[in-house]
Specification:
The chain is of the alpha/beta class. The protein folds into two domains: 172 residues, Rossmann fold (3-Layer(aba) Sandwich); 89 residues, Pantoate--beta-alanine Ligase, Chain: A,domain 2. Strands 1-4-3-2-5-6 form a six-stranded parallel beta sheet, with helices on both faces. A three-stranded antiparallel beta sheet has the order 7-8-9, covered by helices on one side. Helix 7 packs across helix 8 and helix 10 runs antiparallel to helix 11. The longest helix is centred in the middle third of the chain and has 16 residues.
Length: 279
Amino acid sequence: MRILRTPQELSQTVDACRVHGQSVAMVPTMGALHQGHTSLFDIAHEHADVVVATIFVNPLQFNNATDFDKYPLQFDSDIQMLEQHNVEFLYAPNVETMYGSQFSTSVHVAGITDVLEGSSRPGHFSGVATVVAKLLSAGRPDVAIFGQKDFQQFAVIKRMVADLDMPIELIMAPTVREFDGLAMSSRNVRLSESARTEAAAISQGLDAAQEQFATGIRDTTQLIQTVETAIGSTDTEIDYVKIVDSVSLKEISVAIHGSVIVVAVILDGVRLIDNHILV
């Protein structure tokens, strides 16, 4: 695997791949890789000849400086994991390379960034959109892979790509879960043993709501209450549990197939998010 450090190296590498008739997939990450990430690499290989992973802990998307400081860094083990999954290239710029002292541009996607995580974390999605726009601009992949766990993030990036006429196919990969249903996240390692056990209630609540939906229940208030009841039996602080339209992310009163239950909680000082697409 070759490690690239500058946008120029990334662009030149992708251009060389294209000269040889190879298609390119990109998987943006912030490192601290786990099985959720490796599933994205494997899916990327199914859709392109060459896979470029990125590792960059983006300071612009952390509205909480403490959260940024605590983000786990494990570059050496990340390298091993990337090589084990046959990733051909890693783009790993530093902050100075990514932004520089004169950087003054921000990408803002209106509307869908003002709700849910956007409401609780002001500025978060401008940071996400800005860094992803830079990654996609430098790498110009044919396809980019993102995980469903960050459903709102995917919706924001999808809107940005469409609005800016970026000729890139986006793929949302299914959430990979721990043995007890907890969505895999780099933040999970920060949970205490007791909090880690309690965190399983999130997916249990989502599963219970899906079971109700399958029996014909469509009232979102009832479905939300089911999720909150499951989570509320623990010491978890619920930020929100909502059912939204999958495109606009607006709250709805009647659930339909494809509606999304979105959840954000704070447990043991760690913010966890999850979601479930109703089927």
